[in-house]
Here is the input.
Amino acid sequence: MKLVFLGTSHGFVEVGCFCTATLLETGGAYYLIDCGAPVEALMKNKGKSLDHVRGIFITHMHEDHVASLSSVLKDFGRRTSTACATFFFPEKAGIEAFLAWVRAIHGRTKNDRIQFDVSAPGVFFENEDIRVSGILTDHIKGYPTYAYRFELKKENKKILFTGDVCGDMHDFPKEAQNEEWDVVVSELTHFHIEEHIELFKSIQTKQMIFTHKHRQNLEVMDRVIPQLPYPVHIACDGDEFETE
Ligand SMILES: [Zn+2]
Ligand SMILES: [Zn+2]
Here is the structure.
């Protein structure tokens, strides 16, 4: 498996740093975890064809995580496209709103190769290669706008994506401390990491990759990283990590 960090900024773009989108490459297929803009450009710049995307998993509907969805759908509609993918939204209302938006800007939404579904709690996507589970967080409170974190499993490999969490970290995944992970991909914006250093010290992972990063935490990471008992990477746009 390979993780390609396409965009690694917080809720706003920074110079050389776009909003959140992570590409997972496995079994000859691509999966996108969040779809901040401009995903299609960032993939093309890296020579990654959207034709190989099989699933798009959206943690929540904040713009920094979804802004490229309509451009990606448009690319899937090219006559030469071979993409055969499912968009997983955090809730049905999001699918309906997205399709209404697409009708307004493209005039049509029908594409037999593209499906839309919801990332309900528990395992919501499974094929011969990977299994993806969703767990609700409190980053957005209550229907009709939910927020998720994702657990991604392939044979004996496990990756945890925290999604966005709350400032007090009460919804930071307990399983990060209670289970062993190959990779934890954590956001680095909605909390002051030095106030939660004991929590981060207790995480059981072979490596930690921070994305969705904000200056307030980047400025203290020189002090934080030496205290953490696992290798830490602060992802920049375009960084790639092999997990096997
Ligand atoms: Zn965000
Ligand atoms: Zn958010």
